[in-house]
Design brief:
alpha+beta; Protein Transport Mog1p, Chain A; 8 helices
Length: 256
């Protein structure tokens, strides 16, 4: 399972490529009758439904290299989100969580933007031994890599999308399967992650699963700001990812 599903869907394909990259780098009318009172003004018209941002508009507020100099960014591969959209689960209500880990937002967004980001590992000291350099490389491979997706929605779409993942986090707490084509993975449990503040709503989850007998943990965070939802799916080749606080804080700040 590790060779396919873990890389492409359940835990995303980002970790290996990012770690290696880091080391390299009107009113109604009045009644006309004389004895009739003028009709009251029509009730205030409902405000027009909010319009979601387009892909191009989201690209302008998507976190980028200039925003976090101590991180390395790489463009997302469109094939990853395509694969994520085709993913399934034995529990239909859990599919939204499988997709969230694969660059695929809930619902029908008006626009999306995606990127991959990893914290740069600490470089070995000048004059370091070969052993110390090797340890630095291993440390880089253990860095937490984050798949970041922005999705903007028309009307109440963002609130509905956030509600869907919140409901899934409760209904899927006991685990579920995640399927991508012929590849199948198993999530053992979903628990609350470290609290995240910012935006209008925020939800942090720790998603635990197994691959070849090894425990693998993903930090999954959702933040809604207005009609845009930011999804952060963080993993590490070491097996246990840390919540990417710097990435989350910087992206939420950029959303305004």
């Amino acid at each position: 399972m590790r060779s396919a599903l873990v890389r492409r869907s359940v835990l995303t394909a980002s970790a290996v490529s990012l770690a290696l990259l880091a080391t390299a780098c009107g009113a109604d009318k009045a009644d006309t009758k004389a004895d009739a009172k003028p009709s009251a003004p029509a009730a205030t018209s409902a405000a027009p439904a909010a319009k979601g941002k387009t892909d191009a508009e989201l690209a302008k507020v998507l976190l980028a290299q200039a925003d976090l100099a101590d991180h390395t960014f790489k463009a997302a591969d469109p094939a990853e989100s395509t694969a994520g959209a085709a993913s399934t689960s034995d529990k239909p209500e859990c599919k939204v969580l499988v997709q969230a880990q694969s660059f695929t937002p809930a619902g029908a967004p008006a626009g999306t933007a995606r990127t991959k980001v990893v914290a740069n590992p600490k470089a070995p000291a000048e004059g370091a031994s070969e052993e110390e350099k090797a340890k630095a490389i291993l440390g880089a491979l253990g860095s937490t890599a984050t798949a970041l997706t922005l999705a903007s929605y028309d009307g109440k779409g963002a609130e509905e999308a956030f509600a869907a993942v919140k409901t899934a986090s409760q209904k899927c707490a006991g685990g579920y399967s995640a399927n991508l084509g012929s590849d199948t993975g198993k999530i053992s449990k979903v628990t609350p992650g470290a609290a995240v503040t910012g935006g209008d709503e925020a939800l942090a989850l720790t998603v635990e699963g197994e691959a070849d007998g090894d425990k693998l943990t993903t930090q999954l965070v959702f933040v809604r700001k207005g009609n845009t939802v930011a999804t952060f799916s963080a993993l590490s080749l070491s097996g246990t990812a840390e919540q990417p606080k710097a990435v989350i804080d910087a992206q939420v700040k950029k959303l305004g």
